[in-house]
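Job type: complex structure
Entries:
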Amino acid sequence: MSVQAFLSEISHTDPTALGRKDFQTDQEIRWCPGCGDYAILAQVHKTLPELGIPRENFVFVSGIGCSSRFPYYTNTFGMHSIHGRAPTIATGVKVLRPDLSVWVVTGDGDALSIGGNHFIHAMRRNVDLKILMFNNRIYGLTKGQYSPTSEQGKKTKSSPLGSVDYPFNPISLALSAEATFVARGIDVDAKGLGAVLERAAKHKGTAFVEIYQNCNIFNDGAFDYLTDRKLKAEAELRLEHGKPLRFGLNGEKGIALDAQMNPMVVDVAAHGEDKLLVHNEENAALGFFLSRLVAPEFPTPVGVFRSVTKPTFDGMMEAQLEQARSKSKGGGVQRLLDAGETWTVE
Amino acid sequence: MSVQAFLSEISHTDPTALGRKDFQTDQEIRWCPGCGDYAILAQVHKTLPELGIPRENFVFVSGIGCSSRFPYYTNTFGMHSIHGRAPTIATGVKVLRPDLSVWVVTGDGDALSIGGNHFIHAMRRNVDLKILMFNNRIYGLTKGQYSPTSEQGKKTKSSPLGSVDYPFNPISLALSAEATFVARGIDVDAKGLGAVLERAAKHKGTAFVEIYQNCNIFNDGAFDYLTDRKLKAEAELRLEHGKPLRFGLNGEKGIALDAQMNPMVVDVAAHGEDKLLVHNEENAALGFFLSRLVAPEFPTPVGVFRSVTKPTFDGMMEAQLEQARSKSKGGGVQRLLDAGETWTVE
Amino acid sequence: MENSTAKSTTTFESVAIRFAGDSGDGMQLTGTQFTETTALAGNDLATFPDYPAEIRAPAGSLAGVSGFQIHFSSREVHTPGDEPDVLVAMNPAALRANIADLRHGGILIANTEQFGVKNLERAGYTSNPLEDGSLSNYRVFPVDITNITLRAIADVGLNQRAAVRTKNFFALGLVYWLFSRELTHTEQWIQGSMAAKDPLAAEANLKALRAGWNFGDTTEMFAQRYEVPKARITPGRYKNITGNEATALGFLAAAELSGLDLFLGSYPITPASDILHSLSKQKHLGVRTFQAEDEIAAIGATIGAAYAGGLALTTTSGPGIALKSEAMNLVMMLELPLVICDVQRGGPSTGLPTKTEQSDLLQVLFGRNGESPIPVIAASSPGDCFYTAIEAARIAVTHMTPVVMLTDGYLANGAEPWKIPNMAEMPRIPVKFHTDPATFKAYARDEFLARPWAIPGTPGLEHRVGGLEKANITGNVSYDPNNHDAMCRLRAEKVARIARTLPPCEVYGDAEGDVLVVGWGGTLGALRAGTERAREAGHRVGHLHLRHLNPLPDDLGDVLRRYRKVLVCELNLGQLWFLLRARYLVDAVSINKVQGKPFKEAEIARAIIEHAGSKA
Amino acid sequence: MENSTAKSTTTFESVAIRFAGDSGDGMQLTGTQFTETTALAGNDLATFPDYPAEIRAPAGSLAGVSGFQIHFSSREVHTPGDEPDVLVAMNPAALRANIADLRHGGILIANTEQFGVKNLERAGYTSNPLEDGSLSNYRVFPVDITNITLRAIADVGLNQRAAVRTKNFFALGLVYWLFSRELTHTEQWIQGSMAAKDPLAAEANLKALRAGWNFGDTTEMFAQRYEVPKARITPGRYKNITGNEATALGFLAAAELSGLDLFLGSYPITPASDILHSLSKQKHLGVRTFQAEDEIAAIGATIGAAYAGGLALTTTSGPGIALKSEAMNLVMMLELPLVICDVQRGGPSTGLPTKTEQSDLLQVLFGRNGESPIPVIAASSPGDCFYTAIEAARIAVTHMTPVVMLTDGYLANGAEPWKIPNMAEMPRIPVKFHTDPATFKAYARDEFLARPWAIPGTPGLEHRVGGLEKANITGNVSYDPNNHDAMCRLRAEKVARIARTLPPCEVYGDAEGDVLVVGWGGTLGALRAGTERAREAGHRVGHLHLRHLNPLPDDLGDVLRRYRKVLVCELNLGQLWFLLRARYLVDAVSINKVQGKPFKEAEIARAIIEHAGSKA
Ligand SMILES: Cc1ncc(C[n+]2csc(CCOP(=O)(O)OP(=O)(O)O)c2C)c(N)n1
Ligand SMILES: Cc1ncc(C[n+]2csc(CCOP(=O)(O)OP(=O)(O)O)c2C)c(N)n1
Ligand code: SF4
Ligand code: SF4
Ligand SMILES: [Mg+2]
Ligand SMILES: [Mg+2]
């Protein structure tokens, strides 16, 4: 029985009646107390019922890692798969079933270490997936080795003298992999994260959201420079489409270009607001430029770096099937069997 | 016997006496007649003897593909390994043996399809490797399927109705993976390619060179828009550090920014040379911006997109070993065996 | 014109012809045309195309030799033939690479124009074999094929390069004449398909074809013709089919028979890529083909498709299986239906990628961490790939399990005349998606121990699966020691239980006696032919060809015990042999070779006779 | 103070104690301290730490229970003991998860403070087992450990949370008292290592420790103490060592003995990561550790290091082996020395990642495309990992081949007292890089069929290697059929020939008789103990523990035939069993379990006795 036939026989549940509770499961949550994953889980549970999608049409696919336990705690269809491969599985789900809302939950190790290739290929193809990457800059589940987003010099179990690896910039990478939606959120920033999640969910195409997440066991305080109440205003640059890049307690600072086309922090009053860079979610090169604003020299951009619309992989595949079907002369497999040079033995 | 000890016992051959012939092998070349790979091979054979490196200190590692047969035709140490994994093997060689000049030869499929992850990780780490990627926008060896650099809509054996994949931009990807040297050359442009190869060879750190290569069997003419004598001047943008971005038969056209920070082609005379963008090999964001100049809307940049110096992975690893050795109290393994809580049974 | 000759005609039961030339010489096309014409003439036949490993090896080099052998007969044909009776050598390299195989006394037709100094040298000859007497064991017919052809087509006005390329049709015409074949089929093909693309070339090729026929008919050189009468063949409509085409069609048929949407996730690899190519063309049947970034992504996407309710297929060859093994293990754990089709090639490592071998059996059985039982079945001829594909799909969806289907390079590229099946007569593959939330337990099991297929989108069935051990019945994560033990045994039993649904072993030949020849996969023809020869020599021999390698048939142990000796014949170093010894403690003998080539009939016959004789 | 007690003391031959608590309760530390003190007291001993799968499972949950068992004796100890004689349960979950194992009549010490309603509920109790009579089979000692400790350390001034955390030292002190142990070692450790980090905590812990001891000494509850006399142990210097530490040290030793530079390419995975952690600390010995982006890159870099002249090691667990298999095949083809260390864990797929299993044997033997022989050896105890690592490295560089070394989660995390080896007495591992261009052929072979190691940088040895089949001797690419066949057999013979260098099988116990127990890997202790028990019961039993699994020892077939029954005991579904049946056609019996747990001595003894009895 084909899925189409099957779907035509069942009727979906009412999405309007859903609340956050409907997305909780009875499984005991196995994250460490205090882990940033809890806050992200809560935001996702808050966002899902607002999307107007029947609960049975959500699929969450994860890899392996603390973050990847996410599906167990979310009452949708879910798969806790193998390390780094979630984007591939999610691609298969979405390509076969464009009717589903397909999410990938992954970690910095899962997505960028073993899974780096699938990660960039999913984005390149613009498969309609929502990819949430919990970046705690550490391998949590395997008890604390440096990850591809750990800062150079980090001392961990596997780098007692300090890691000599340079980190990836996940936002740069996603942009260069042609992702059509790229954003950053922070575990403890419920409001900002919620807004980003909602936009990601509604984006048609690959939506990548990097979520800074505190691992209080193996990398505690990694994002304190950004989340600490006292530092926040100076450390965070909220991205808003069409708005000049301003930050500071009263927006008194801004980002502009210097003569070498490098970014510089300026005093808005002195420099002039019209000379600030203006955020444009449709300009990939600008998005890339923004992704290079890295602490401590620069404030950390938070929000949507890029958002453009392009036909999705699954959509184009579907269209191609449709077109081929419409041109087909019918006859099914027998027609193929009968085709070509044949002869008859009597 | 340790490699150090071994090396101290042998004496290297004289690199100054080397010529291009010394790098040819007696193996029959198994590329199709007319393949662009021949021209690249010739340029590499021309470049190697000019580097002042003893022949036995070169190692060429490749993956699988037509391009990856390269080592058989180059009389150095060489390994024709497995599909996509050459950067990993080369990393091991270089990390154990910083004394060697280690090269990776790969194709668009080998490097960006199956090997995409190793490709970006080698660059992230800035391992001192020279990576030559022959981009023919097709899988040659497996007889013509679309590759991750094939243009959308391409009809191939595996995409009879046209591929729905969007391509990667290899230069963008390399830049976002933090590569310290990123350049583009063209098989038939001997001079330009030679210059780029030489700079790559001399760069300390990961040097990535994308080489446009014609596969005259499965993707003939893919780069004609750029290599055709008649179109070349309009189609090519030669990058020169510190120089404004000009092209056209007499440099009458240039690249500037529009109000949205997007690139535009301008008439130099009308627009003013001082308003053109100036190439700066040290600005990663600019490099990325340039990588987005794609035909037919824009001329294709050729030459060096980025070149900066940063400590290499192998160098830092070596330094860390050295530092640890200098702090060590000696005693070898026995000291470790004896350490910790012990007791004696009489 | 076909009957215009006045020369005498000799009748043969069977003939094998090999066309050999440079890869640019169109030998595969020549072979295919000859095959189709021969099939139309009513012979049974088998073919063996042999491509060079390179895309375009240097012209005239040994590496660039391309060959195509066809064996046709008035009786049943099992293999392409051990030794060709006729060799057509378009250049010195083709001669050198193939002459050792030509039967002593066989016919050699050589294109003299190519035997200049340079080409002789390229092929590694120091003197011209056509002249130095070294070919005295054969009946040599030196023909200046190139130049005669050029003259024959001069008026068409092709450029030199294109003109020279028609010479294979001259050779084909000549061989048609020699074996009393009609030109009609090839003429029609030229005038149809070829003319549509390039009318000028079609005209020239037609002339070349006829010129070859006329050359045979008129020249003094050829004193007689040969004839191979029709075979007795099951009535029906036939076509030539390669293993890869049949595999593709088989999965299309399985989709139609089950009603499921076919999804193929694949990464190109020799010799499996053609399945991807074939299925890519069937979008109108709702087939989704996904060319992934690598083998892992290919099976990953396929797992996603299986989970989502598709007929999930991934295709590859040995190195790809190595890469897929972690994901194969996941899908075994998920208990989802998915077929992994492994077109085996010469290993280990990159090995001999364009050659055939049967050396992935132990890999697919055991190449995963932990206790990971996966059913394995193998196709035994190009056409059988069709039925094997359907069987693989049937097992997968009925038993909710990944299934490995093994074919090999020999089957994949080899073609055989194939009786076209009738879809209407084929049994459906019943599939049921679970719907009832009240009765839903993700790891509850039916009589086959299969769990329910509960696809996303089904209200009330929201649940989580994964690679961690799961509690029996509920499927929740479980670290319970006894549950783990029980689940490992349940999964093993589930696969073992498939044997209950299998027919008993069918032995060809003697049901007991001196020797049982056991084989699997693409060696069927050679083992059958070898068995026949040995039986004709008076030995009591049975031949058992296994389609199911995991689980093995329930009665296999009994069958093995009915013979004094068991010979396990394989193109590896003894993998099924190893399995049968372990399973049945049978002191079997391994007959093996690893040469990238199929068995010869004579090799098998010799081995059987040797072991039938030794009363151990 | 240690001798201040007036209570009576009973002597035992052997005792097993299990400390169990929440993962935050410091049970591993408690166990380690008890182990060291016990070793210093001269007992033979074995330990078994049992971590929860989660990093931090919810406090008080069953999933969060952490345990540590120690078995100590005045005679030889082989395993951590089947059933503990003493259970210390720090909370209800610890009690519930462990009580089934406690020997009837055994001692249970429970921390009553934790047995409130909420914790009971978390553990799934509906009533308090300390009060409802359900523990009547045990000698129960309810102690309010938390509050007594808090009172004892009140004056130190720790905050509540930190103060509560010292309660494990109270428990430790109490058990020390119970088993007549001195506090000295732990006191010194607290005053040394712990005080250096946190003097306040050290002070509190010291007080808690002493309070526990005093509690035992003074309270009425405990009427008597126990004593386990010293064992007769080979003289020498000892330390406790885990399998992973010993593995790391073994490779360091191999590097020193061969003079080669050690290179480790690895990707973290439980339970192998600690080898990476250990070696990362040894940069001063010239060790290069490379944490790769995945398992494939890890072995890839390691291949590069082998090619470049290093002692090349990659470490992983089962899922990582699946991913490495394509590259393992390459290095087999390259014939370069490289060790793949597989710390096996519970499979299949993600399986039970923190548990032990022996189910990767067939995977490492057969999990590659084509005919791909790779030597496999297995360590049999934590300390033996050291020697196995050296042996693996020796085989790799002597025979120019990849080698798989198998350990498992049980060995990796388990510790045993280990006699410290003397490097000066260990045989060197001779290594020679080829230098002479005149005699250089990349695939020429020595008497072991090993090819030369020709590293980059050596003048005149420039050459190319790769995964395509290569011509015998020269190593150039070759598509020749007979060469391929010959090379496949040569590679197989090369591995087979390693057997010539191996010592004959050493059987423990009876050299012939009723039953031969065959095992491999981390089950050594249980099989040895089971064998001893069966022999004590009067059966003629031998125990053969195989270190070399490929090739198998030359005399193994003979040894197997000397017993009426062969029992192959493994923590899988019968993998070595399968191998031995295939190789020797021996009708062996598989004794197996897959529970993520080691065998019990009694299980093995029972199986032996059963089969020794049945005169089949
Ligand atoms: C094939 C494979 N290799 C290695 C592992 C071990 N492993 C599990 S999770 C993980 C890293 C997780 O890091 P991240 O994705 O950042 O997740 P986190 O735990 O930090 O949320 C590793 C190395 C595995 N499960 N499978
Ligand atoms: C594991 C594995 N998968 C697939 C293949 C088949 N294969 C060989 S080369 C190749 C693609 C080569 O493309 P590219 O790197 O662009 O090289 P080109 O031939 O175009 O130079 C593929 C898919 C293989 N050899 N190994
Ligand atoms: S280890 Fe870190 S990331 Fe994992 S659950 Fe604990 S706090 Fe969270
Ligand atoms: S197939 Fe293409 S890339 Fe390969 S050798 Fe031929 S022309 Fe070159
Ligand atoms: Mg992480
Ligand atoms: Mg290519």
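Summary: The longest strand of chain D covers residues 14-22. Chain D is about 35% helix and 20% strand.
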